[in-house]
Write a sequence for this structure.
């Protein structure tokens, strides 16, 4: 019997987790269809591995997603074994200071483009004997890491979409797997933290910045993460959720067992939000001393705890 080639389509292979997932799938004999906004960015990868092929994909462009579906259908003869939605973008701004346009971009890349990719590739996955959709999610679906609410919300939306998709595709023998990712060393934070001049959050900006970059620096090495994930994805039976990356299992335990009031208390202390309460008191004190009411409604912020 002729063994059919296995194909894995992986988005966002220019860097980080995507590059390593491509290498790990390729090492296991899978033909990897790797995407990047510009195929030139994948030259090193495709020159090193003969079973990694490059395809262009810009997730903000609906036409680009459709062109990818057409190109993949031609290349694979109309079937696909793995669709790995890895590409993602980060935006670090607080709820009070975020630019709505930037939050929309985050949702476009992290959620809506994933919905469209799934929709377009389900017919190809159905032609595999066991198609698998893999979503690279995040522990921030459960943990309200401050200064990145839009990103957290996008990963929570992705997670709930994934849970629904899993049920809807069960009758068609397509597995839908969420990789609940902890800290992994990568360049995801390259946009830095956004804070406009006069932001009420400036007193903790440096603390949060250090925490985020330190978390990333101490994260799991991308190769180790990818090897573990691909090994689980290639096995005959796999779990609906795979928790991987630094702190993933600790977080799973904490959010699974601690009551919300205690989690909130821990987060409040961890992110040192109490400093904002002090800063606000000082601001109010000096405003009273000078008898000049603060015209900015944002001065009403009271925090919690
Ligand atoms: N690193 C972590 O600790 C961590 C934790 C939880 C979840 N994750 C998730 O893991 C996934 C991979 O992230 P990473 O850590 O490996 O970071 P990364 O190195 O920044 O990789 C993100 C990839 O997505 C691509 N991408 C972003 N916007 C795109 C768009 N509009 N169109 C096409 N491609 C786009 C990027 O391409 P360009 O380089 O061209 O922008 C890049 O290749 C993301 O979904 C992220 O949310 C990461």
């Amino acid at each position: 019997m002729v063994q059919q080639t296995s194909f894995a389509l992986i988005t966002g292979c220019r860097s980080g987790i995507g590059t390593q997932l491509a290498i790990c799938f390729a090492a296991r004999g899978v033909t990897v269809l790797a995407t990047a906004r510009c195929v030139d960015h994948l030259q090193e990868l495709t020159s090193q591995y003969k079973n990694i092929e490059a395809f262009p994909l810009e997730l903000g462009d609906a036409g680009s997603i459709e062109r990818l579906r057409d190109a993949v259908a031609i290349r694979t003869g109309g079937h696909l074994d793995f669709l790995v939605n890895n590409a993602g973008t980060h935006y670090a701004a607080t709820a009070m200071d975020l630019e709505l346009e930037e939050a929309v971009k985050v949702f476009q890349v992290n959620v809506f483009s994933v919905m469209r990719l799934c929709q377009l590739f389900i017919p190809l996955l159905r032609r595999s004997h066991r198609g698998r959709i893999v979503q690279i999610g995040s522990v921030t679906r459960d943990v309200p890491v401050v200064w990145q609410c839009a990103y957290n919300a996008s990963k929570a939306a992705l997670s709930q979409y994934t849970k629904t998709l899993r049920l809807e595709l069960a009758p068609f023998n397509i597995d839908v797997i969420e990789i609940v990712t902890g800290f992994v060393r990568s360049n995801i934070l390259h946009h830095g933290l956004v804070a406009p001049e006069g932001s009420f959050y400036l007193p903790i900006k440096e603390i949060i910045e250090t925490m985020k970059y330190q978390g990333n620096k101490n994260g799991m090495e991308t190769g180790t993460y990818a090897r573990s994930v691909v090994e689980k994805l290639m096995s005959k039976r796999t779990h609906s959720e795979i928790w991987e990356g630094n702190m993933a299992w600790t977080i799973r335990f904490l959010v699974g067992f601690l009551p919300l009031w205690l989690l909130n208390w821990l987060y409040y202390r961890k992110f040192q939000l109490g400093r904002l309460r002090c800063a606000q008191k000082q601001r109010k004190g000096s405003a009273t001393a000078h008898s000049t009411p603060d015209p900015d409604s944002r001065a009403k912020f009271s925090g919690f705890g």
